[in-house]
Write a structure and sequence with these properties.
This protein is α+β, with helices and mostly antiparallel strands and 220 residues long. It contains 3 helices and 14 strands. The strands form 3 sheets. The protein has an 8-stranded antiparallel beta sheet with strand order 9-5-6-7-11-3-2-13, with no helix packed on it. The termini are far apart.
Length: 220
């Protein structure tokens, strides 16, 4: 199982503590309490490894398809005004990532990064709509031949770190990793309104693989 590099320090710390606990239990230092502690830390270390898993997506071959930038459950699909990058009407798709979901984010489309802004904020539970405006977040705007796309990584109740790898001017490829949010969180995706949305509220989606929409060609 591939592990995201951001998880290495957490996994190493957990495995070292587990090894120390089992060594103490083997040497009969601390008695039953040492065994319970060793078992608990071992379970935590396994959970950390599993949480930072980074599976390779099955990217669809059709370049016109928009893939899920995050893994989880679609909470909301609505028409909004997005003024920071889209400069007007957009369609927003909100994906909630529970603590049990993959937390690596992948580019929904291929294009050039034209906008990157980090905003500190609160840590409300991620499924609340106010989290879109109030919580810590990082926004990445991507230009494509068929219109702009905005992806917003939003921290949740216990998340305290958002990682967004690309810089303005970088090229991103659809389905390729661009960031990670630690622990419970959400991802908002903003698309042009003339693109066809082919997902529904309540769907569970896989990052980089599940199809959310189809681009509308704007070729002259």
């Amino acid at each position: 199982m591939k592990i995201a590099r951001e998880g290495y320090p957490f996994a190493a710390a957990g495995l070292l503590l587990a090894a120390a606990g089992w060594t103490a239990a083997y040497l009969r230092v601390g008695g039953l309490a040492a065994e319970i502690a060793a078992g608990s830390v071992s379970g935590l270390a396994v959970f950390v490894l599993w949480f930072f898993r980074d599976p390779e997506p099955e990217i669809p071959s059709d370049e016109g398809l928009v893939v899920a930038p995050g893994q989880g459950k679609i909470l909301l699909i609505e028409d909004v005004e997005e003024d920071t990058f889209m400069a007007g009407p957009a369609r927003k798709i909100t994906i909630f990532l529970s603590v049990f979901d993959v937390h690596v984010q992948r580019a929904p489309v291929s294009g050039t990064v034209a906008y990157k802004v980090y905003k500190p904020g609160a840590y409300a539970v991620a499924w609340l709509e106010k989290a879109s405006n109030d919580n810590e977040q990082s926004s990445l705007g991507i230009t494509t031949p068929n219109g702009p796309v905005l992806v917003r990584q939003i921290a949740g109740l216990i998340a305290r770190r958002i990682i967004t790898d690309p810089s303005e001017g970088d090229t991103v490829e659809r389905g390729r990793r661009f960031g990670l949010i630690r622990f419970g969180s959400r991802v908002d995706l903003f698309l042009p309104r003339d693109w066809e949305v082919i997902c529904s509220v309540g769907d569970r989606v896989r990052v980089g693989s599940s199809i959310l929409a189809r681009q509308s060609s704007r070729a002259a």
